[in-house]
Design goal:
The protein is an alpha/beta fold and 394 residues long. It has two domains: 187 residues, Alpha-Beta Complex (Quinone Oxidoreductase, Chain A, domain 1); 142 residues, NAD(P)-binding Rossmann-like Domain (Rossmann fold, 3-Layer(aba) Sandwich), CATH 3.40.50. Helix content is 27%, strand content 24%. The chain contains eleven helices and 18 strands. The strands form three sheets. Strands 3, 5, 6, 9, 10, 17 and 18 form a seven-stranded mixed sheet that branches. Strands 13-12-11-14-15-16 form a six-stranded parallel sheet, sandwiched between helices. It has a five-stranded mixed barrel with strand order 1-2-7-8-4.
């Protein structure tokens, strides 16, 4: 390299390396919530590159899920501005230092409840309860306490559940992605990433429904329909679907419901008791997130039965439970987050079940939307017009 030291005019300018700031920051189109109760704003945002232990994912499909609607309406308070979306699938665009489980070009499912893999909850096979995922959920920050999104004014934008799938590109922790078979359609992977794993897991892991049991499901949205099909897959002999929207019956029947109760026209507790010979259901599930159906699901149990709550409620919601029934009838009331499953293990297994024909996915999808139609998509969800819908990118 001695020739570079010769006094030749301007030779050193050829060896200068531009700073990182000299390169344009990657941008993405995203749906940003600036204030609860207001529509999502579609705008271009800057996406900071992945740091150590992080990956950049180009989203291909994102689920229109009720959990995000709770934040949009203010039922679940979150600091803003924030990019919502927690259900989806995409392709790894880039990786930061020390990432070993995925590489650019890999197809992945984001895990909206990231886990550290080391704490007591992770070691016990309950990664959804890991404090790492909990912290990201409530702060909107990455594990290092910073964000990876900026708007055109240079303001930081928060992450939702560590993944923010309503951005066409999103930086997330390596622990928040699961590598999947590239031949598996990404729109189907997006369906599995939240609604399917939560519903199926509530049946198989949280409740551990027995072969030939009687089951009642309150709420026939994305989670409820998968609870219904989970009960079908486990060969429950009676699967009673309950909803206030009569039009949900068709979807519920397709997923495996043997009976449907329109709870806007009758007392669902009484109706379930009548359908079960006066005993009540052995297992009931609440997939709405409101106190009244939680109470009804608990009251619909037979002696020794188990009620599992999967619906997200307002932070101040309270359900009134007859505590004597916990004792004298030995009823069980419990919650289930992420289906009480292990996403890294169970997501690929669910994909295999679909390949065998046991798990229905095509029947779940009502329609798809462009990102700029996202507010319309949520209006349709609130009206009960869809079973499950997706935001898709070409």
């Amino acid at each position: 390299m001695l020739y570079a030291l010769r006094p030749r005019k301007r030779i050193f300018c050829l060896l200068e390396i531009p700073s990182a700031s000299a390169f344009p920051m990657p941008t993405a189109l995203a749906a940003v919530l600036y204030e609860s109760g207001k529509p999502l704003v579609i705008e271009e945002v800057e996406v900071l590159p992945p740091q150590a232990g992080e990956v950049l994912v180009r989203m291909k499909a994102a689920g229109v899920c009720h959990s995000d609607l709770h934040v949009m309406k203010g039922d679940l308070p979150m600091p803003t501005p924030i990019i919502l979306g927690h259900e989806g699938a995409g392709i790894v665009e880039a990786v930061g230092p020390s990432v070993i489980s995925v590489a650019p070009g890999d197809h992945v499912i984001p895990i909206w409840r990231s886990s550290c893999g080391r704490c007591d909850f992770c070691q016990q096979g309950r990664p959804a309860l890991c404090d790492l995922g909990t912290a990201m959920r409530f702060t909107g920050l990455m594990p290092d306490g910073k964000t990876r999104f900026r708007n055109s004014r240079g303001d930081s934008i928060l992450h939702y559940a560590g993944v923010s799938t309503f951005s066409s590109m999103s930086t997330m922790p390596e622990g928040a992605v699961v590598k999947i078979d590239p031949d598996f359609p990404l729109w189907k992977a997006a369906l599995i990433s939240c609604g399917v794993i939560t519903g199926i897991g509530a049946v198989t892991h949280a409740a551990q429904v027995r072969l030939g049991a009687t089951v009642a499901v309150f709420g026939c949205g994305g989670i409820g329909l998968n609870i219904i099909q989970g009960a079908r897959m486990i060969s429950a002999r009676q699967i009673i679907a309950v909803d206030t929207v009569a039009g949900k019956e068709r979807h519920a029947r397709v997923m495996g419901a043997t009976h449907f109760i329109d709870s806007s026209t009758c007392d669902p507790v009484k109706a379930i008791k009548e359908l079960t010979g006066g005993l009540g259901a052995e297992f009931t599930f609440e997939a709405i997130g409101l106190p009244e159906p939680i109470e009804q699901a608990f009251d619909s149990l037979r002696k020794g039965g188990t009620c599992v709550v999967t619906g997200i409620s307002r932070g101040d919601a309270r359900a009134r439970i007859n505590t004597n029934q916990l004792l004298y009838a030995e009823k069980t009331l419990k919650g289930s987050l992420y289906g009480s499953m292990r996403p890294r293990i169970d997501l690929p297994r669910l994909m295999d079940l679909h390949q065998t024909g046991a798990l229905k996915l095509d029947e779940l999808l009502t329609r798809t939307w462009r990102l700029d139609e996202i507010n319309e998509a949520y209006a349709a969800l609130e009206r009960g017009e869809v079973a499950r819908s997706l935001i898709v990118w070409d």
